[in-house]
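chain below, 292 aa
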Amino acid sequence: MNPLTVSCVGKVNVDIFYSVDEIKINNNHVSDSTAFSLGGKAANVSVALRKLGIQTNLVSAIGDDEFGDFVLSKLRDYGVSPLVSRKSGTKTGFTFIVVDRYGNNTMFNYLGANALLTVEDLQIYEADLLSSEIIFYQSGLGPELLVYLKRLKRKVFVEYTEPLPPEILEGVEFVSLNEEEALRVTNRQAVDDAINSLLSLGIRNIFVKIGGRGSLYASEMKKVFADAYKVNVVDTTGAGDSFSAGCIYGILNNFSEEYILRFANKCGAITCTRKGTTEAFPILKEVHECKF
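prediction:
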């Protein structure tokens, strides 16, 4: 029996971390701690799932630079299959992340080669996509990528961070987003109204991260809430991606909606207790054994 596989389509970055006591506009900041890490939502989710024991592919684009070499090396170290298109004459995407003493982060993103990912790139790896149980796609890249993925008739899990044409979302199996994103992409003032708006578009299952309060699941049939775990926050970077990976893991293992939320909340909470992005994601044993 072939192992369950998830293909993640979207961004891969190099994350460059600066730790500071406090961020003040127009001030000079000196950091006593810096680090480089693999990043980008699609890359993050592929690594988080791999650390949970799921086989993963990353379909993305990188530049022909040293950051691209770094990305390939890190993906292989984590056991993720790198189905990446190398774009000549471009730079690999990178993100500057400033983390204050409370674990809050401020990000500055450069898309680089990510912006050049095309349907033609995806078609090169169509056999891998078709062999996937679930395909993860993050919005913010060309919506034509999602149109193509839907045509493959696989279950698609959309990380909905940027607005998409409403007609494209009809029939999408899973969507994940945080509260701010839900309000922004639907132009609503309350999260319940935002969820109802998304369901009206034909999305079948919705997962919403509501920060320190917990998370929500919604479909036409039911709505579920799960409290957040209380932890000492070190760095929130990647916590949302760890949550999404937890949701996908739960879906693959036929967890109830209630247990999916608890499992995903724990993945995100553990990530918040550690510095970095991919380095902070928990392995499966840690999620099962962790007692908050």
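The domain at 5-11+40-90+114-289 is CATH 3.40.1190.20 (UDP-N-acetylmuramoyl-L-alanine:D-glutamate ligase). Residues 247 and 264 are 5 Å apart (CA to CA).
thats it, cya
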